Amino acid sequence: MPVAEPGLGVETVDLATTPLRELNARLHAPDLAPRWRIVNPHGAHAVAVGIDAEVEVDVDGHVGYYCAGMNKRATVRVHGNAGVGLAENIMSGAVCVDGYAGQSCAATGRGGLVVVHGDASARCGISMKGVDIVVRGSVGHMSAFMAQKGRLVVCGDAGEALGDSIYEARLYVRGEVTSLGADCVEKELRDEHVAELRDLLAAAGVAGVQPGEFRRYGSARRLYTFDVDHAGEY
Amino acid sequence: MCGIVGLFAKSADVEERLGAHLGAMLAQMADRGPDSAGLAVYRDPAPPGATKLSLFSEDPAEDWEAVAGALEAHPDVAVVASHAVVLLDADAETAQRRVRERRPDLRVMSAGERIEIFKEMGNPRDFVERFALDAMHGSHGLGHTRMATESRVTTQASHPFSTGLDLCLVHNGSLSNHNRLRAELRREGIEFQTDNDTEVAAGYLTWRLREGASLDEALRGCLDDLDGFYTFLCGTADGFAVLRDPIACKPAVLAETDDWVAMASEYRAIAVLPGAEDAQVWEPEPARVYAWERAKV
To answer: Which of A15, A65, A121 to probe by mutation at the B interface, max B CB count within 10 Å?
Structure first.
């Protein structure tokens, strides 16, 4: 995703001098400027949360927890690292991080696209409900835990218990998977999955990665309803 | 909740300003733990044959010169708010026994060659001022801001907890099997001063180290023997180690540059350090011990 050039029509907000609530209130106002640049975030929490507008927001530096949470329609790019809960419950639009993302990235996301160019930590995509997530690096343990819908693409490795208690999300991992969680199994990578991966990688702006290099994982569908034969896996 | 910070200097500049940096980090974590704050700093090794003790007195008008006399300590006592750092020409056991026998009203916060521990109730920002962290140098240090959940807000239940000579522990989380473990450790001769859960973790490490385990082994033992949530930061004479429980719900961020290694509950505590923008930043994996040590001279 290209970076917004400074210039006409770009609203710049310095978090070293502007209170966070003021920034977020301005981003929630009607008729806001189409392009925003936020500087000096210094790890602040809740930067650019709850936007519901077709705007582009560039954040220069590292952010803390819940950046771009509940995002709707906006494109938010973080030129740094993001802490816990990046794009939590994202509804639509796109959130992109140049660096790493902390744990619970895109948790419960219902739609839109989340791109992490570095690694994402534990529980990436936990309880995802329709969001697409593309991680250029690796993801930590218990990623896609109870994932219900959407797609998680990991170009690196996945930690322990990937896709534990997964419902219908599709998981693609290019590297090693330390272990699969309960009811998560490897599935055949068919042509339609390769095509889907090609689209997702293109949308995320990830180059140098071939869609055919991934393996697909998903639900074995044994835990949907309680079955005493599987009691040990719940 | 609670906040943890740690800083390990890799350059002379950072050593010189270690206390100022740790103070800034603690202030950032004040919201995570407004009840009390504490700091362990490693610096100025005691001369050979001597032991350094950090002492705490509840009496704000404590006569520390008289304390030094009573303990046969070096006369140049470093008084820091409610605490004082004293040097005794004795081994650590003798030095601590002398305090117990001659001044049982004082509390030994730390003992060793390099370690100094200061901790106090109240807002961490006030702690940073009161204990003049800005003026402290050191090779490495760790700090804590406490939001009490498992026991009362007292100075004794504040972190860091001493776990043996030149060793200490700070903790974010809560342990659920601390009562039984405390009883078991008491049978092993480990003493406890509070009903605090972290003190049990500290006592556990003390016991394992006493039984000959390395710090790495003792920390790995936590994975089997402690039940609950924890991010631990453990200080040693030469560095520090980080461990998160296997679920890793409690936050932790590590960062490293050519000049320092830092650990904190949140990135914003690291953002105040020079060069933080360009640091390598990552979250430690669960159930894995991360350790940094100064090169031995």
So the answer is: A121
**What is the DSSP secondary structure assignment for residue B188, as one 8-state letter?**
T
At B105, list the tokens. Answer: 């009203």
| pLDDT score of B28 more than 90 | yes
Residue type, B265: S
Interior angle at CA A92, CA A91 and CA A94, nearest 5 = 125
Give pLDDT tens digits for B130-145: 999 999 999 999 999 9
Look-up of token digits 């801001």:
B145
- pLDDT higher than threshold 80 for residue B13: yes
Q: Is A188 helix (H, G, I), strand (E, B) or coil?
A: coil
Chain A / chain B CB contacts < 8 angstroms:
53
Judge whether B213 is closer than 8 Å to chain A, CB to CB: no
**ipTM of this predicted complex?**
0.80
Query: Model confidence over B184-214: pLDDT tens digits?
Result: 999 999 988 888 999 999 999 999 988 998 8
Residues A148, B286: Cα–Cα separation, whole Å: 25
Residue A42 near chain B (CB below 8 Å): yes
Strand partners, B261: B8, B256
Rounded Cα distance between A178 and A57, Å, is 36
Which two three-digit tokens encode residue A115? 């791109």
Residue type at A63?
Answer: V
What residues in B contact A119, CB-CB < 8 Å? 282
Closest residue by Cα to residue A187 from A202, A168, A206, A159 = A168
- Rounded-to-10 torsion of CA A222, A223, A224, A228: 90
With CB atoms and an 8 Å threshold, state whether A43 touches B267.
yes
CB A144 within 8 A of CB A160: no
Say if residues B296 and B50 touch (Cβ distance below 8 Å): no
> Measured between CB atoms, does A59 come within 8 Å of chain B?
no
Closest to B134 measured CA to CA, from B34, B25, B271: B25
Is the Cβ pair A83, B267 closer than 8 Å? yes
Burial B31-46 (b: 16+ CB within 10 A, else e): ebbbbbbbbbbbbeeb
User: Given pLDDT bands bounded at 50, 70 and 90, which one contains residue B158?
Assistant: confident
Report the predicted TM-score, pTM, of the whole model to 2 decimal places.
0.88
Asked if B168 has any chain A CB less than 8 Å from its own CB, the reply is no
* Radius of gyration of chain B from its Cα atoms, rounded to whole angstroms: 18
Taking CB atoms and an 8 Å limit, are A141 and B286 in contact across chains?
A: yes
Residue A4 has pLDDT above 60, yes or no: no
